Amino acid sequence: MKILSSLLFYILLLSLLSGFHRAADTLSSNGTITYGETLESSGQSFELGFFSPNNSGKWYIGIWYKKFPEIIVWIANRETPLRNSSGVLTITPNGDLAIMNATTGDVFWSSNSSKNEPAIVAQLLESGNLVLRRKDDTTQNYVWQSFDFPSDTLLPGMKLGWNLSTGTNRYITSWKDDNDPSPGDITFRLDNSGMPQFILRRGSETIYRSGPWNGIEFSGSIDWKTVYTRIFVYNNQELYYMNGVVDNLIITRLTVYPSGSVRQLILKQGGFSWTVMDSSMNDQCDDYGLCGANSICKTKSRPICECLYGFVPKSQSEWDVRDWSSGCVRRTPLSCLQDHIKFLKLGGVKLPDLLQFSLNKSMSLKECQAECLKNCSCMAYANSDIREGGSGCFMWFGDLIDIQEFSERKERYIYMRMAAAELSKYIQVYLRTEFEFFFYVGQMINQNIVLA
């Protein structure tokens, strides 16, 4: 009881000393933030303070754009709001950043960064990053930083992905609804199985994916290099994505929404309206697995779903009413005899999801081709890295899910296993397609059939 009384006296004293307005970017070890007080980044881009969404009676510490206070980019106590405005943000005597009830002394949130270093300050950087650092240390050797604990928004300089050394996974989570900032069901993260790809989920259900990283970009993504930069790091220590701006007159953010979408937005300096530059739902084909198994989604076609060549609808009656969920099945069964097999080269697509697959980063495309041919279960193969002519080997086993056409990206190739009996049928329709065939005769001698 004596300890609690001393702590409450300490908080009350600091509150009285701190005054009623704060425009500084730094909270010292003998300072506090209470309702109505804020920290402000040095360039006045971001502000930190207490807020209550739509007067809900729940109070949070958040960071928002100074000019757009309704856009909250980070929240400390998403899961533990205060029930009144008597909260205080302070640095505890042992160096933790904490949100407490100034009346009872109850701790609602803590950075849990304590290293028993009393000479700690909290600073709101111009990037929107709230950091704990040693008082005399101006380097980026932070004791703790909010960028390691994202809410629903990715800001430039913030890493989305993995620290492979510690196992830490940074991802963004939507609000529960537009008025409740507690963690919702929608998450956007960098998946680390096989080659990395972005996955948007509702609970455990995948609702969008970017396609795997191919050495240059994610195979199903749009390139906006003229507006903002995309940085992707993949080594033994880290796997992360980070974006930045090309023009300092442009503000950008990536936000995941309770409705089930993730959007990259930009704002030009002096503007008042955010523009959506990229979205997980640019068109209907972004809906994960919309066309079912062994099919391709083509935004510019009507209907948008087609079976891959050599496949037919599993249920024609369902396809006739635009229900594609049952997908497609092979028209001609496969054989394991090599001279009965050919591969269809399909270009300009988002590669299938990595559900049943193998990855060998050292194989050439020719070696990958040979391995797939020898394995009766291999349904398709592709280079895992398209740089410098291509390298690495993806092999898919089982159904091919979530293929999407990108006609402007012809260099994205996948080679699908086909029955040789389909060859004559293909030749008849070749001039109406963009496919090429590779088939094997005898000792795996292949011919490239090009009809003109």
Automatic annotation (TrEMBL):
This is G-type lectin S-receptor-like serine threonine-kinase At4g27290 isoform X1. Residues 24-145 form the Bulb-type lectin domain. It comes from Olea europaea subsp. europaea. Involved in sporophytic self-incompatibility system (the inability of flowering plants to achieve self-fertilization). InterPro entries: Bulb-type_lectin_dom (IPR001480), Bulb-type_lectin_dom_sf (IPR036426), Pan_app (IPR003609), S_locus_glycoprot_dom (IPR000858), SLSG/EP1 (IPR035446). Keywords: Disulfide bond, Glycoprotein, Signal. Residues 336-419 form the Apple domain. GO terms for biological process: recognition of pollen. Residues 1-23 form the signal peptide. Coiled coil: none annotated. Pfam families: B_lectin (PF01453), PAN_2 (PF08276), S_locus_glycop (PF00954).
